[in-house]
Every structure is written in C-alpha cells, then in structure tokens.
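Subject: design request, 158 residues
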C-alpha cells in the first residue's frame, strides 16, 4: 500500500503530465475555441499541480515538476490525431479521455487516502475532492463542445 505522500506524488505527476499535454493541444487547436478550452484546462491543471506540490512540501517531500514520459506520449498522440483529421474538433474525444483518466486518478488517490486513514490530513482530502470536482466540470465543458459540434461523448461525467 502506498504512503499518502506516494499517493499525492503520483497524482501530482499525472496532473503535471496533463498540463503539459494541454500546452501542446492548445498549439494544435488554436482555432475554433478548442485552443481556448485547452488553455483553460492547462491552467486548471497547473493550478492543481501547484496545490498538490504544496501538500507534498508540507509533508517534507520534494515534488517533481517534470512529469513523466506520458507527457511525451500525449504529445505524439495529439499530433497524430490532428495530422490524420486536420480538424481541431477531432481533439475533443482525446481531451475527454484524458480528463476521464485524470478523474480516475483522483478517485484512486481518494481511495488510497481513505485506506491510509489518520495518516492523511482532512485538508489534503478536501483539496483532492475540490480538484476532482473541477475535473468533472472540465468533462462537462468538453461534452458541451462536442454536442455543439455534432459529436457525441457517449458517456456522462462521473
């Protein structure tokens, strides 16, 4: 079982990866509001990453602001998807999938914190819950854009 610090650190890395991925997506989707959405998502995840880094610092841990290899993978996937379609709106399903993965990471982190019990501060859990709700809202924004463009997400946010 991971320690609370390991749980928060793992989530932090995933959020940093997401923010870096949205930086690339923003460049690809400069037009048709997709770039604006990517910029908003990037800012949200950067804010979350900073907040998670603060939790790690309070625990005496040093956060890794570089992310992981997955940020490179996300960049390649976005570029290939755009190269095949040349349509900024084609990025929306990938953005939704990314947000769903981050939502699952928050769910996993909250479950780990629940298991860890008193080793986790109430304030840490509240931060994770607040950030999770922000991710749910992100999925709703993406769904609205997909609906407006005639695409279907196929699922409702959790």
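Subject: RE: design request

Done. Sequence follows.
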């Amino acid at each position: 079982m991971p320690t609370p610090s390991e749980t928060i650190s793992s989530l932090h890395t995933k959020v940093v990866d997401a923010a870096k991925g949205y930086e690339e997506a923003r460049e690809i989707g400069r037009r048709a509001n997709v770039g604006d959405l990517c910029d908003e998502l990037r800012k949200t995840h950067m804010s979350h990453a900073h907040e998670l880094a603060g939790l790690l610092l309070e625990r005496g841990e040093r956060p890794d602001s570089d992310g992981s290899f997955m940020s490179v993978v996300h960049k390649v996937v976005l570029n290939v998807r755009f190269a095949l379609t040349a349509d900024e709106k084609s990025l929306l399903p990938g953005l939704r999938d990314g947000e769903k993965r981050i939502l699952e990471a928050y769910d996993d982190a909250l479950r780990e914190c629940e298991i860890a019990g008193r080793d986790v501060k109430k304030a840490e859990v509240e931060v994770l819950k607040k950030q999770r709700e922000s991710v749910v809202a992100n999925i709703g924004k993406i769904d609205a854009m997909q609906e407006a463009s005639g695409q279907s997400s196929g699922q409702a946010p959790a």
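The first helix runs from residue 4 to 28.
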